[in-house]
């Protein structure tokens, strides 16, 4: 079922991707090609088949709820914030959220 | 030395015929001369490399070296290495200096003492089969510079093929180690899912991503894999298993082996020259005493469609972390927070990455989750069950790695679906989580390498590597090098 330009724009908004009208036209064509490939899945008889989320039957390991990194000094914070686009006094700066 | 095996390099280092620093310089010189043409490396840092080589020499002199200490390698630029720029071939991470080491880097460099020559080019966020989606430009195939090296570990494969490194790491989500290994005439192994830690390996599709090795021979790959694999508590899906020596079966008797031939790997859709070479390799195995049995993977036709639901779904979730706040690219101009996200992501990601985020967002969105995502996961189960059935009748599966040899740069760029279908023989393996490798088995009329794929049962990589080794003892395809007098 082919996507409309409006739907492409809605998905782009959900994915937080800015999209120009030109780009959404091209994207629509390519996504529709890809979805016609994916449609083959609808021909598979999967009644009673359990979805397989993972390659192995693994479950998340649990550990004690305890501090494992004690290296919480300013140097560690500085290291991680040295790659941030904008920081001030140990805080990440973003545009004002609450007016 | 350029094309020497790891055991030859190890012997030369142990006998002090060459130092690790000299070895590193040899390869750094070649990289400096040739990389402008091949574009296999995104980042080279001679100072860091030589410092690591100096340390390795000290370890060798002190007598506490591991089998790999002092041997150079190249790291796919998807593995975080502290202090190294780690880009994942994206504008999003163009200036990202990793603040910590991936476990693969810790194990191979800090523990085993291998010396990193640099970070190799790849498809952006490992999304691609030709290495053309890299923000840092396409990689050229050393066998024919007008052609692609395959992807997504295309820089790693091209670097090994051109003699810029003895061995390289890679990752394989849908064929990203095996297909470039095939297209560049190399051996590449993707182990069982969960064997190699994903900690510090930038995530694409977490239930499929698996680190591995691209080298010249199965022997070399086994050596590196032994140092690279193992349980890691920092990776929540790392399997708790004892460490393994993946070289241990290299000299085991070969007789009595049963090779399964999946009917679907030998039907139409594969290039005739590739099929001829695969059949010749099969005949070689029969000559060596292997029995064969025809098996079937009836749901293989669902593997590419299932993959292009599951992998983008996981990618859309994984890549939501790139928001321009804590690290990565931030757009220069925006009016508010939402616009900052939207512009940073639109400018920071390339076209293929955005395409996959859109697919993933759609298949996970309200009203489509059951029809696409759950249906794809059910198909995944059917595919895994097919393999389980097949392995009741054989020890290993054999077929082509890729339906064709290296294609021309630009040939498949405009048509994503055609590009996706170039992974038709590799994707099912990732969905099932099985180990597999590609090894060279011939050349087409244009002189381009052809890859043979061997697929093993879970945790059987030592045997798969040994089966490849037996072939490499009997043939010399893996000893051919491109005639690039670069």
Description:
The complex is a heterodimer of chains A (99) and B (486). Chain A has 99 residues and is mainly alpha-helical. Chain A has a domain at 5-43: Histone, subunit A (Orthogonal Bundle). Chain A is built from 3 helices and 2 strands; from the N terminus they run αααββ. Chain A has a two-stranded antiparallel sheet with strand order 1-2. Chain B contains 15 helices and 11 strands. In chain B, helix 9 (303-318) packs across helix 12 (369-390). Chain B has an 8-stranded mixed beta sheet, with helices on both faces. Chain B has one domain (1-486): Amidase signature (AS) domain (Amidase signature (AS) enzymes, Alpha-Beta Complex).
Mean pLDDT of chain A: 88
CATH class of chain B: Alpha Beta
What is the helix content of chain B? 25-40%
Query: Which strands sit side by side, in order, in the main sheet of chain A?
Result: 1-2
Give the H and E element order of chain A.
Answer: HHHEE
Q: Would you give the CATH topology of one domain in chain A?
A: Histone, subunit A
CA radius of gyration of chain B is: 21 Å
Sheet bearing the most strands of chain B, described?
8 strands, mixed
Q: Whole-Å distance between the termini of chain B?
A: 16 Å
Overall 3D shape of chain A: flat
Computed CA radius of gyration of chain A, to the nearest angstrom: 23 Å
CATH superfamily of chain B: Amidase signature (AS) domain
Main beta-sheet strand count, sense and barrel state of chain A: 2 strands, antiparallel
What is the terminal-to-terminal distance of chain A?
42 Å
